Amino acid sequence: MKRVGPFLLERRLVPSPLVVLGVSLLAILAAMGAMAIIFFAYGVDPLRAYVMIARGTLGSRFGVMQMLRRAIPLLLCGVGLVLAFRSKFWNIGAEGQLLAGAVAASGVALFSGLPDPLLLPTMFGAGFLAGAVWGMIPALLKVKLQVNDVISTLMMNYIMIYIVAWLIHGPWKGPTMRGFAYTDTFPRAAWLPLIPRSMVHWPTLVIGVAAALLMTLLLSRTRLGYELRVAGESPDAARYAGIDFLKVSLVVMLLSGGLAGLAGVGEVAGIHHKLLGPLHISSGYGYTAIIVAWLARGSPLAAIITSLLFGFIFAAGDVIRVTLQIPFQVVGVFSGLVLSFLIGIELLMYWRVRLLPKGER
Amino acid sequence: MAGTNGENLAHTPATTPPMLLMQDIVKSFPGVLANDHVTFEVRAGEVHALLGEHGAGKTTLMNILYGLCRPDSGRIFIRGKEAHIRSPRDAIALGIGMVHQHFKLVYPHTVAENVALGLAGTPFFGPARVVERGLTELSQRYNLPVDPKAKVWQLSAGEQQRVEILKALYRGAEILILDEPTSVLTPQETLELFKVLERMKEEGHAVIFITHKLQEVMEVADRVTVMRQGKVVGTLPVSETDKASLARMMVGREVVFRIAKGECRPGEESLIVEDLHALNDRALPALRGVSLTVCRGEILGIAGVAGNGQRELVEVLTGLRRAQRGKVWILGQELPNRSPRRIAEAGVAHIPEERIRMGIVPGMSVEDNLILKKHHRPPFCRGPFLQLREVRRFAQRGVEEYKIMTPSPRTSAKLLSGGNIQKLILARELSGEPGLVIAAHPTYGLDVGATELIRQLLIRQRDAGVGVLLVSEDLEEIITLSDRIAVIFGGEIMGVVPAAVATREEIGLMMAGERRRVPNP
Questions:
Q1: Cα dist. B19→B70, B80, B177, B232, B481 in Å?
Q2: Structural domains of chain B ordered from first start
Q3: CB–CB of B341 and A222 under 8 A?
Q4: ipTM of the complex
Q5: What is the C-alpha separation between B427 and B398, in angstroms, rounded?
Q6: Which of A69, A92, B172, B493 is most open to solvent, judged by the fewest CB atoms within 10 Å of its CB?
Q7: Sorting pLDDT into bands at 50, 70 and 90, what band is B15?
Q8: Could you give phi then psi for residue B31, rounded to 5 degrees?
Q9: Do residues A79 and A215 make contact, with C-beta atoms less than 8 angstroms apart?
Q10: What are the pLDDT digits (tens) for A65-76?
Q11: Which among A12, A226, A230 is the nearest to B386, CB-wise?
Q12: What does pTM read for this prediction?
């Protein structure tokens, strides 16, 4: 127990889910409070801004669909990252893995010449594999050569970003695109079906939710999930128990990278129908998914909720840009604020704060 | 802290006040009352033992005195004057010195530099030079020989302890707190330390000696204060008490010192080690040709001062460290440098030294922890899937059989007490009938109850025909449990003696590096 001013702090070892939820909400509210200052600085009444955002997102069918559309890649990447983070593999490379998936899917769509019904399944398969390979390289480097996973996964992003840029400016540049740096448009059979009057490519959404469910089962019910949890919680105990780090890391990054790769397939096959500039394909989903996974606190199911939350923030960004005429980069500021407050407030989960009774103050 | 300041206490103003009085100290941590209205008094010129089991509140009380944590309530008087100790700096200024169980020394620096560190009034350049002179004088006066220019990493544990004591004396400590000072010493070094304590008594210092070893209290202390579960059970002169009644005070019930042990009937060899060589983490030779055998139905104890290759030996035998050279047969199979899983599957149970870091996964449930190492095999795992019902049934049985005190099998293992964590590890390791048990410091830091239970479990394994290799720094434990004792020094076995004829002196000499002259039995 500790006294700070009129407060009494008491440590708790295991915060209850309710406390975690409450404290997380508190952090988001605090971030919104800080965001109000930025609105104010742009000369927008913060209250009006929040009303507009609410109306433009949750308040309309269009807004809800925009949220869902943004949530899809966040969910797929987020679930994969949850898995990686549970094994203490710090995969910062979902962005690159997503792009790898997009490249592979584009390659299949444009150049494979497969019969129409096989096209989409093959694109998903190839996208998964490409993301997986891009994720497994850092895993191999970490286990075999002790290369820091944060650095290597992060750097792999840049490599993939430039590969995409090279492809669209060079060998894959579309002859029908009149000089723009795109590939040609995919054949119709390579387009994902959408929920009518929206940009929600629902097959990818279904895959995302299924992945969240399957990964929950994997973690709690399988040998692999068990070994992954042991390796993440205590590397020494894992060594003691004879758990093969190489195998666990490779499988974790196969799944984590693969799921991010699927997100890339969804973006090119569902929305753009061509390979284009890396920033246009992903708008930083792979990085935002880190926050999505962090907030989900190790639960793939919780990633469904947190990816919707960030889908909302992205959709709110569109409102900010279009309706309030504030640069959309402000969205990045807001995600950053949310993350900072969440990490900062973490301490609160482990301390019970009470006001001292009057007499003792 | 309650309001009154500075004035003298109302108690016995006629006699001289004691050197130290801690009055009504209360300190709570989440879920435990570590000090429950503790009153503790030490006089000048005495060695005062603070006796209690692990978790009795001794260290907390001393941390309060040294300013490392602050009491919730209670007052401290030094030579009759109330003191407000907010940090170790305050404590040092009041003449209090503390030698921690784990030394707080800067290893690449010299002895003098370590003493000069943080000392007020030393020059910016070459502070150690000023200290050296005083240090030589002090070490002569107290018979604490140490070279002020030696680098600390080159010193033995006993010498490092001397540096810590000198550090405190140099800062003018009149009250010296020694936290479990003998745990890193050989029996001979312990005797030397006791002589130093005598000398300090003569000089009028007050020495507080924290320990849980009764023998040492009887040997060195003038008075003893016994603590149990955060409370003081009593303070009394050592001359008016004996080991048995101290033990009773400490534990709260009768304690058996000798564990009933049947006759040893050794069977075939369960472990044969021949000329084993291995490196330590710094790539220096740690094992230099170790050879030994453990038979089924016997306990072979490895005695030795910490850091003489015990850890490396255990790690090589359990597959956690590679041997450079040498042969290992476990239960009839030749298993040099195999994976930990392969060795576990051959029938080896391993009770690791670092039970929280290695023995359990703290964030996972008791249930999950109980199947560690066996999680990949039937009945707990079929194909890729865990058999949760089997896991639960096994955990239920383990918790009952080994009396693991846990709110539920789903509770996270980090919330258990040390004793219950160790019971969990034993429940896991001893299930599935191992042929060889390798136990490293199995009772280190446990209370008497858990210690007794764990020792009995090891003896039960031996009686059931399992070979047990016991590594411990607690000589008492080695002598109590072992059938034969091997002493390790500098990565070599100095000799093997049957426990029945072993004397502490003989073992002590071997622990200090003297080879046994008689051929091994």
A1: 20, 7, 13, 19, 42
A2: 13-95+174-255 (3.40.50.300), 105-172 (no CATH), 256-347+435-521 (3.40.50.300), 355-433 (no CATH)
A3: no
A4: 0.83
A5: 6
A6: B172
A7: low
A8: 85, -15
A9: yes
A10: 999 999 999 999
A11: A226
A12: 0.77
